[in-house]
Each structure stands twice: as C-alpha cells, then as structure tokens.
Amino acid sequence: MQRIINFILHYRNAFLYGFLALFSLIITVRSHSYHQSKFFNSSKWLTGNVYQTGAKISSYFGLKEENQRLVKENEQLRRMLFNIKTSNAQTLDTASIDFEVMSAQLVKNSFASPRNYLTLDRGKKDSVTQDMGVITTKGILGIVENVSNNFATVQSVLNTKSNINAKIKNTNYFGSLVWNAEDYRIVQLVDIPRLVPLVVGDTIVTGAMSSIFPENIPIGVIKKYDLNTSKSFYNIDVELFNDMANVKNVYLIKNKNQDEVKTLESITLDE
Amino acid sequence: MNSVVAVNIVRFVLLVLAQVLIFNTLGFLGYINPMVYVVFFYWYPIKGNRALFMLIAFLLGFIIDVFSDTLALHAIASLTVAYARPVIMRFCFGINYEFQNFSFKNTTKVQRVTFLGLVVLLHHVVFFSLEILSLSHLLLILKRVFAVGMVTLILCVLFSSLFSPPSE
C-alpha cells in the first residue's frame, strides 16, 4: 500500500496531466460530432459582455460603410415594394405572415477555424430561440444554436457540422450545403444529381425543404463543379455572396410554422 | 512573492483579453489568428509548483476556449505545453536551468528564441491536429501549424523583448 501511494505521489504531475488531458480530449471529440456545449459557450454573461464592449468600440470604425450598405438595401427593398403586383390588404396582414424578422448585431465574428460560431447581441429577452435562421443583406449566415438572456451563438455556414438545404435558382434541384474548412469564401453544394445542367455563375439559393430559412434567400454563385467519386452526383464549389470576414448587421428569421412542422415530422418518423 | 503572484494574474487577464479581442479577430490571409497567449508559458516563473502551473495553464486555455467556442482545444494544447516545459527548458538551456541563480538574463538570444519556438511548435501541433482531427487533412494541418506558428513566434519574440520579466 505504501508503495502504491509513493508511486502515485511520485508521478502526481503525470497523473494530473493525464486526467486533465483526458477530460479535454473527451469534450474536444464530442464537439466534433455533437452540438456545442450548453454551459460553456460565448453567449454567456461574461463572454458576451466582454465581446459586446469590444464590438462597441470597433463598430465606430465601419460606420460609413455600414450606412452605405443599409441604404443600398433600402433602395433594393423599395424597388421591390413599388413593383409589387398584388397590393390588397389581405396579403399584408401581419397575422397571416409565416416569417418574422428581427435585426441584431454581431459582437463576435469567426471564420478561421473549421467550426466557426458567431455571437449576437440578442437573446431570450428578445425572444430569440434555437434554430432561428440568420441572414445578412447579401445572403445567408447561419443558424442560432445556443441562447442566453442577452446573447446568442450562431453556427456559421462556415462550420463543418453545418448542413443547409440549398437549390439552384429557378429550378427544383436541391442539395446540401456543407463546408470543407479550406477557404472561408467558398462552400460546397453536394448531392445535386448528374443529369442537372449546370453553368458556372448560376446562383444558388436556399431550398424549400428547410423549416429554418424561407425559400430563395441568396447564398452564392457556382465557381467550379465536378463529379464525385461515384460519378453520379456533382460536387459544386459555391462562392458566397457574403463577405464572411466583414459582417456587422444581421437579421434573425423566425418561421412561425417551425414547431408545427417539427412535431409533424417527429410523429411521422415515430410511426 | 506577492508581487510575483499579482504580476502573473495581471498577465493572465491581459493575455486572455488581447487574445480574444484582438488576435482572434485578425484573420490574416483568411486563417492566421496568432495565439500570442503562449508567451505566458515563457514568462511564468521557472521555480514553483509544477502542478499549480499545469492547472493555471489549463485554466488559461479553457477560458480562451469558452470565449472562442473551440471547447477544450486551447486547454489541452496549453496543458501539454505546461507539462512539457521542463523538458524543453533542459533541451534549450542545458542542465544549469535547475540551479538557483538561473534566469533568462544569463541565456543567449538564440536559446530563448529556440525555447519559444519549441513551445509554439508543440502548442500548435496539438491544437491543429485536434482541431481538424483527420489524417486525410495532414497537409492542411501542416500548413496551418507552419503559417500560424511563424506569426505566433514572431509576435511572441516581440512581446517577450518588449515586456521583459522583472529581475528576481
């Protein structure tokens, strides 16, 4: 017994190292396949406030550009509004709309790691919930993953765990949008069947299969495509419209029918 | 003794803030975010409880992990560096680092840069291999270790000569 205790005392540093390393290794491996940790993430009070303080200071440097971007968007929205075909009051009634939109600001951006998470300055207090879609004026950004009282973390499209339904604009050929972690400007669209006619420069938009994003939100354009190893599906490189390194103002989208769709899907799966 | 503790606490907090607010947002060439907090392992006093050093290193990494949503990657890399530091020191400064009167003042610039280089290399190898965790991306791992490691090393050498530790 004495010798065992002596042995442990002699190698106590190695034991400590082994224990802590095993602990962090387990969380690391878990984070590769499962959801982000609920307890330790940047939406928490301390981390969120530190990031917000930093963002408050640095946001002054991009005010002019950000203003121009918003004015451009207003111009585009007004053009759509003035040219809208149906103008009867029924279609504009807020009780019948499917999607709600809320603005937010990014307090932490990240695009260099294979699993990027962003942090927003909106939380439970603003009725943000998990699985809300996040877009910018130019295109899609990600999906809300964890929410605290005042902040929320977003799983970016630049995350190897991200998988978003997307299609080629004006067709109904849809596939999955994934990321291979190599270039922050380019994401991959997979599972588009071989018979689909493709042209470099075609626009990719979100598909109708998702209960998170509305249909036809722009994503990017086809940069390059080739067949995968089985020669039956395309691997498409999509160049994002969004400059992921420079994002400030974003919009959260809530699908009012999401809960209904999810319950229905889970019932169908159970049967 | 108390001033050493205070200095190290201040360093700890400042390095965490510098890392998460400045260096994690650099994105130089799209993926280079230098991890300058590694310089903490250069500054931390040589004599002292090794277990405590490992716990502090783990905590430092873990806090940065929580900030950057990379759970436990920084923690395991820092922990490994803290565990291996005596070996690296013996390799760089020879056996005399264990003597009572050893300080970085008696070492040459080359020795100190080698020491920092090895610390950065070990840290980055652990970090990026676990971050990507796939042998088929070996080239990507090597590219990142080399590119980010070089920038980190340059910044660490600058930091360590700008704020040289107080003579003890």
Automatic annotation (TrEMBL), chain A:
A biological-process GO annotation: regulation of cell shape
Limits of the Rod shape-determining protein MreC beta-barrel core domain: 107-254
Primary gene name: mreC
InterPro entries associated with the record: Cell/Rod_1 (IPR042177), Cell/Rod_MreC_2 (IPR042175), MreC (IPR007221), MreC_beta-barrel_core (IPR055342)
Family statement drawn from the similarity comment of this UniProt entry: Belongs to the MreC family.
KW Ribosomal protein (keyword) present: no
The protein's name: Cell shape-determining protein MreC
Source taxonomy: Bacteria, Pseudomonadati, Bacteroidota, Flavobacteriia, Flavobacteriales
PANTHER family: CELL SHAPE-DETERMINING PROTEIN MREC
GO cellular component: plasma membrane
Record's keyword terms, sorted: Cell shape
A Pfam family recorded for this sequence: MreC
TrEMBL record, chain B:
Keyword set includes Transmembrane helix: yes
Superkingdom of the source species: Bacteria
Chain segments annotated as transmembrane: 12-44, 73-93, 113-133, 145-163
Keywords: Membrane, Transmembrane, Transmembrane helix
Official protein name in the record: Rod shape-determining protein MreD
Natural source organism: Flagellimonas ochracea
